[in-house]
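Saturday, quiet lab. Running sequence design on the structure tokens for the scaffold JK sent over.
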């Protein structure tokens, strides 16, 4: 069971979007530029298509995200300093904050329609009840 709790269209400057804690202590840096995802405890970068190819859809789900047509590129956790998940493209100052039940360690799964060149990104917060 899942519930869509955020849907945003983002201009993916430098071919990336992020899922972060508020004011993360650091941001991951891709080593090769070919990685579909790079992550640190408070910040996850997801490779997308170029901003010249158009905007990217970001979908945030409480519970499991619908998976048909998507590939899992990340399964882990994010450490949230506050009870908010911050999504978007910080380079372009296109960010949204979504309240979650609590700060702290939160499991997260990320799915994309095309690894390393995504036009659609689904972020699942499996431990967040879909009714919240």
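Result came back. Writing it out in full:
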């Amino acid at each position: 069971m899942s519930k869509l709790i955020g849907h945003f269209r983002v201009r993916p400057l430098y071919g990336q979007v992020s899922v972060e804690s508020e004011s993360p202590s650091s941001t991951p840096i891709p080593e090769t530029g070919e990685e579909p995802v790079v992550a640190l405890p408070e910040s996850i970068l997801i490779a997308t298509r170029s901003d010249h190819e158009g905007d990217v859809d970001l979908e945030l789900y409480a519970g499991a995200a619908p998976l048909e047509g998507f590939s899992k590129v990340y399964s882990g956790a994010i450490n949230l300093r506050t009870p908010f998940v911050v999504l978007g493209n910080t380079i372009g100052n296109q960010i949204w904050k979504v309240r979650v039940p609590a700060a702290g360690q939160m499991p997260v799964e990320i799915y994309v329609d095309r690894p390393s060149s995504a036009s659609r990104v689904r972020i699942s917060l499996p431990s967040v009840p879909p009714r919240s």
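Notes for JK: The longest strand covers residues 71-80. The domain at 2-125 is CATH 2.60.34.30 (Substrate Binding Domain Of DNAk; Chain A, domain 1). Ask whether to fix the surface positions before the next round.
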